[in-house]
Amino acid sequence: MVKQLTVISGKGGTGKTTFTSSFAALAQNAVIADCDVDAADMHLILQPEIFETHDFYGLDVASVNRNLCTDCGICVSSCRFAAICSDKVIDVYKCEGCGVCEYVCPENAVSMIKKKAGEYYCSNTRFGPLVHAKLGVGEEASGKLVSEVRSRASELAEESGKDLIVVDGPPGTGCAVIAATTGTDLVLVVTEPTKSGVHDLERVVQVARHFRIPVVVCINKCDINDKLSVSIVEYCKNNGIPVMGMLPYDDVVIESMVAGKSVVEYSDGQISESIRLVWEKLEDLLMQDKAGLVQLL
């Protein structure tokens, strides 16, 4: 059975992709899925060679048949998003695809049509298959695209005999995060000792536990604020959340990103060894059956 590990952060900039790219390097038989579709960056490190491209269609948008339209203005006044101009032009960046204009039009001159909102790709990398995506500027339905990425990653894992999917999740706590975590076997939250890091850690843990996903935590850049790091450890202890590791700030991380490599590829120093230890702990957890992982809830 294919296991799934999702790495999330609650907020951007905690080092989520730093960890996920290193896990991709350390995993022996995995498919990698970059589910941060709004600002994907895993490809910058893994340098993928695309072998498959799929169009992604998000929300439908309105279209006006000028030959049928009588300029009655009902659709204009009914659109709460002001997406229909008086000259029968639809502003696709304002249209939310609700379909009210189609419903109220007395001449059946308005119809909802599919609109390409992005693409997702299957690629080969030096660490194995990667599924990644690009959502168009201003487009909605990022959660739907994340689901497409995860679905294709699962298919690739089955086709290629992989036993693990490592998911680089999006930041935040919205629908894209929910789409990236639901149904996974284990969630790793990468946090940092900052005010926003602590706040968003608590929020994203609530999301994962709402969907009954086992959660563990790793504190990155733990030495930038010792007091808040202690506070995070205490929070995890009080809520029964295992802390997989506490990693100090290290310039090697930035150097590895600039070089286009994962940290564990770039250096054999302390930070790489710490990431390896975190990965070993995660592997041990993922080897457990569902009953064992449920104990983390």
TrEMBL record:
GO molecular function: oxidoreductase activity
Family annotation (CDD domains): SIMIBI_bact_arch
Domain of life from the UniProt record: Archaea
Any coiled-coil regions, as ranges: none
All residue ranges annotated as the 4Fe-4S ferredoxin-type domain in the record: 60-84, 86-115
Protein name: p-loop ATPase, MinD superfamily
Organism field: Methanolobus tindarius DSM 2278
